[in-house]
User: Fold this.
Amino acid sequence: MKMNKNNSVNIIKQLWRHAEEESHLNVYAILDAARDVRIYRKLGNYSCEYLCLLTDRLPDELAHTAPYLVKLKKDAVFTKWLIKNGWGNSWGSFALTPEDLFDAVTHFRKFIKVKDEKGNILYFRYYDPRVMRVYLPTCVAKEFDFVFGNVKYYLMEDEKKDIVAFSFDKTNLKNEIIKTIVTG
Assistant:
C-alpha cells in the first residue's frame, strides 16, 4: 500500500519525535530485502549508510534478499521513499539508539540466529513488524535486556498502519499506539 504524502510526512515526524527530544538518538530501519525487490536496489541508489545483518559473505543473488540495518536521515530521499512505499507492507521495523552504525549492527546481529529445542540454528526474523509486535510482549526481563541493549525504542507499523512504539525501562515493557493516518 502506498502512503499519501500527508500520511508519509506524519509517519516520518512520529519516527523522529523521540530522536528530536533526545538528540543523541539515531534512527535506524531494520529492513527485510526479501519483502520487495526494490529495497536492495534503492540502498545502492541512494547515499545510505547501511550494513547487512548477516555476517557471512553473500553471493549477489542472496544479498538481494538479506536483512539490512540502515541509518536514516529525516529529510533524506531514501527515508521518504521507504515510508511512502514500504509502510503497511511489513518491510521492517525501526530502532532508536545512541549507537553508531557499527555498534548497532553488532547488537542486531546477536539475535538474528537462534536455536530451536533440538539445537538447530534458525533465522529469527524479529525485524518483521508482524513478528516483533507479538514477540516483545512475551519476553521476560533477561530477554528484554538482550533485545533492547542500548535501543531506547522499537517502532513499527501495526495492522491498522499506525505506529506501535515499544520501550523498556529496566522493569517494564511499555507500548504506545501513535495514530498516523491523516484524513481529509
About this structure: The chain has a mean pLDDT of 91. The helical segments are 5-21, 37-45, 60-63, 77-86, 101-109, 129-135, 141-148. Residues 5-178 form one domain. The chain has one domain: 5-178.
